[in-house]
Amino acid sequence: MKKALVIDDENRTRDLIAKMINSFGLDIEAIPAGENVKSGIEAIKKHQPDLVFLDIQMPDGTGFDVLNGVQDKNFEVIFITAHEEFAIKAIKFSALDYILKPVDAEELKAAVEKALETMEGATNEEKQYEALQLNIQPNQKRRLVLKTQESVHVVELDNIIRCEADRNYTSFFLVGGKKILVSKTLKEYETLLTGHNFLRVQQSHLINLDFVSRYDKGNGGSVVMKDDSEVPLSPAKRDIFFKVLESLL
Hints:
Blueprint: E1 2-7, H1 11-23, E2 28-32, H2 37-47, E3 51-55, E4 57-58, E5 61-62, H3 63-68, E6 76-81, H4 85-93, E7 97-100, H5 105-120, H6 125-135, E8 143-147, E9 152-156, E10 160-166, E11 169-174, E12 179-182, H7 186-193, E13 198-202, E14 205-208, E15 212-216, E16 222-225, E17 230-232, H8 238-248
């Protein structure tokens, strides 16, 4: 049976989450252990868990400090947070999971089941944790973690030219001609990359405005990127495209 640790500074929350997990009847046992950074690190070293529920805000630091204090991170992490928007963004960019307080039983169960599925495959959480340490720094450029069946890729936003939807998959086209296909929808990445100079110009296309080369009026209108790829521009997006482009000049 797998082992989960719940590290949270609130005794009631810690005990409640552990009790809820143990009631799900899944192949995992939850232990409430660790109320701050110091005791959290000690608990991880002692119990060697497969999964850690980790509160972000603690009396002597943050959940990120706990990760920094553990050398061998051979476990999945699900963060516990209360609407810290910047932290949630950093977690999402790093392709890690989180649950919100107050904890909802269905959301908690879904998060545990997802973590158990992830444990069955080949993962490389170390890359994700490294990306997270950069993503939580306000002045650092964001790194986007893209997970495929074979690999974990850490990509700087400046290297993404465009994204293209293919049903429930998204293809990332990068500088140098590299392409990465991930099993997430374009809508998820549109939400994440909003505010980082990306614009959805058509139902299936999200572009990095820094890589726009020109606009061609032919064939209904299309955006030509600096890698010579052509992306159709939806008539509904034309005004906002030119407005945003002008603000960058």
